[in-house]
């Protein structure tokens, strides 16, 4: 009987995602032992500043990667949207699981949607991407930072510090809090983070004896979708400093990829979209680069500070 050690963050959502991966793996390999290695990352510990202000790539990954390098864990489970466009040398992503709901959720006890808010109302989100899309629609509402895990953010909403908050549908659904979703902020109007709703497994090249098992959880269609979105983000030099959103949708043999670059302060949004036949990874990535080029040409370059 072999035993797999999975590095994970300690939030309720991260633990749910890791338990989910563990259950899927046990179903493939009966008798597999799974041990969780819960770790705290810089992104979890520094809560008084926005992620953009902390800066740096892989704020939610580093400690997990160090544990894998030291041989203390065999793989790690991440929300793919938190994973930098380029993995650290020596690491790979053997599996991207089937995507859950990729969209954002409007969460509010009092107000059914963004339009129903009175002027001056306070909406909570620390995501520049969400801030920009909120400001674009309602320049008269105040968008205030809101860090912390899903439960912390909901508690701050319930205390009345905010009239509404925006969270990922996938996180709420995984934690059994579907009923909190007052409205789904769906494409094409409102775009999510590249790869939102997809769970990824990362491992070090030295974990050869686990690779075949981990690869079994890969979902080819999801990998195509998120590869288009991430290729767009990569071409824009996607960091956490500038709001970027993307969503790839299948239409028969084709993908439609929609993307936007924004400014969180002013609410200015630059949008672009393109379609192409996508059957393999290189086609998905080419589509991502094409939409990025459109965004750059149409004003995105200025917003990205170039
Ligand atoms: N930023 C943290 C984070 N990373 C992934 C999710 C949601 C789950 C997912 O996208 O798979 C969340 C919570 C949120 O944005 O509300």
UniProtKB/TrEMBL annotation:
<dbReference type="InterPro" id="IPR022417">
    <property type="entry name" value="Porphobilin_deaminase_N"/>
</dbReference>
<dbReference type="InterPro" id="IPR022418">
    <property type="entry name" value="Porphobilinogen_deaminase_C"/>
</dbReference>
<dbReference type="Pfam" id="PF03900">
    <property type="entry name" value="Porphobil_deamC"/>
</dbReference>
<comment type="function">
    <text>Tetrapolymerization of the monopyrrole PBG into the hydroxymethylbilane pre-uroporphyrinogen in several discrete steps.</text>
</comment>
<dbReference type="GO" id="GO:0006782">
    <property type="term" value="P:protoporphyrinogen IX biosynthetic process"/>
</dbReference>
<dbReference type="GO" id="GO:0005737">
    <property type="term" value="C:cytoplasm"/>
</dbReference>
<comment type="subunit">
    <text>Monomer.</text>
</comment>
<feature type="domain" description="Porphobilinogen deaminase C-terminal">
    <location>
        <begin position="224"/>
        <end position="296"/>
    </location>
</feature>
<dbReference type="InterPro" id="IPR000860">
    <property type="entry name" value="HemC"/>
</dbReference>
<dbReference type="InterPro" id="IPR036803">
    <property type="entry name" value="Porphobilinogen_deaminase_C_sf"/>
</dbReference>
<dbReference type="GO" id="GO:0004418">
    <property type="term" value="F:hydroxymethylbilane synthase activity"/>
</dbReference>
<comment type="pathway">
    <text>Porphyrin-containing compound metabolism; protoporphyrin-IX biosynthesis; coproporphyrinogen-III from 5-aminolevulinate: step 2/4.</text>
</comment>
<comment type="similarity">
    <text>Belongs to the HMBS family.</text>
</comment>
<keyword id="KW-0808">Transferase</keyword>
<dbReference type="InterPro" id="IPR022419">
    <property type="entry name" value="Porphobilin_deaminase_cofac_BS"/>
</dbReference>
<feature type="domain" description="Porphobilinogen deaminase N-terminal">
    <location>
        <begin position="4"/>
        <end position="206"/>
    </location>
</feature>
<dbReference type="Pfam" id="PF01379">
    <property type="entry name" value="Porphobil_deam"/>
</dbReference>
<protein>
    <recommendedName>
        <fullName>Porphobilinogen deaminase</fullName>
        <ecNumber>2.5.1.61</ecNumber>
    </recommendedName>
</protein>
<feature type="modified residue" description="S-(dipyrrolylmethanemethyl)cysteine">
    <location>
        <position position="240"/>
    </location>
</feature>
<keyword id="KW-0627">Porphyrin biosynthesis</keyword>
